[in-house]
Amino acid sequence: MVRNRNQLSPDPIFTLSVASRLSEVPCHSIRQYIDKGLLIPFRTEKQRHLFSEVDISRLKCIRRMIKDGGLNIAGIKAMYSLIPCWEIKPCSIQDRSTCEAYHQVNAPCWEASQKGPNCRNTDCRLCAVYRLPEECQDLKSLFKRLLDQKQSSS
Length: 154
What we know:
single chain
């Protein structure tokens, strides 16, 4: 996979303790984020978690939303659930009709068990939707950007 110099690596290279130290998020909090679906770490054959640079960035963003934004885990999950994945990773109306991520309102798209054809056989950790926290922007800015893109293409 070729990536530009500023893009974070999705390769799983950090253990839980290293991820905790780099992100300044306690290990028990990271485990909570995993349990609540905010983070999808890699798993080794022995079921140990490994984290990528993308995950570290995501952890820092979650920490910032909790400390500076006053959100809790449920609030962050609800916010992630509002992301219009079908706009970021364009899906046809027909594909949306069979996609749980399009219809569910209480979980982010990467937690959908029945995905549309565009996402069915892809690794959510590598998806542009899941990787949005690399930018750690508020949803309003994301929605504005998506609307501007849609208007300029019309």
